[in-house]
Amino acid sequence: MKEIINHIHNLENSLLRSDARASCAELDTLLCDDFIEFASSGSVYTKDDILARLPEEAFLVNYILQDFKAEVLSNNIVMTHFKTTHTKNSVMVTALRTSLWRRENNSWRIFFHQGTKIL
Fold first, then answer.
1. How many degrees, rounded to 5, is the angle at CA 79 between CA 39 and CA 24?
2. Which CATH number fits domain 2-118: 3.30.2000.10, 1.10.287.110, 3.10.450.50, 2.60.40.1120?
3. What is the pLDDT of residue 18?
């Protein structure tokens, strides 16, 4: 189980790296086709939205992942909880985040993500 949690932690970190965020191919591999995100901005995004938007914004933000926790809900589902921080317009922005990952054909892919800003 620890091996799965470490792997998911690495995948979460990869989704925060600007090089992965700039790569439609990498995002396509990591996101399930039915992916949905409730963003900290209040917007709702699908996989198609992410593939169209994120590569152009990838180098604008450098996220720091903190307080990572994961729970294996079944053999094929893992839920993560963590905090991110980044700087936007010289202001530190912090958000609480939750993701759900699903194993598909021996690969882990994210199918749900929600971010909530900490005010």
1. 55
2. 3.10.450.50
3. 86
Q: What is the pLDDT of residue 87?
A: 85
Tokens encoding 119: 């005010």
- pLDDT in the model for residue 77: 98
Question: What tokens does 110 get?
Answer: 């994210």
DSSP per-residue letters across 19-75: HHHT-HHHHHHHEEEEEEEE-TTS-EEEHHHHHHHHHHHGGG---EEEEEEEEEEET
In DSSP terms, 64 is beta-bridged to: 85
Domain ranges of the chain: 2-118
What is the token pair recorded at 9? 């932690």
- For the chain of 119 residues, list the mean pLDDT of each consecutive stretch of 10: 96 92 94 96 95 80 93 97 90 94 96 95
Residue 80 sits at the vertex; the CA angle it makes with 104 and 73, to the nearest 5 degrees, is: 60
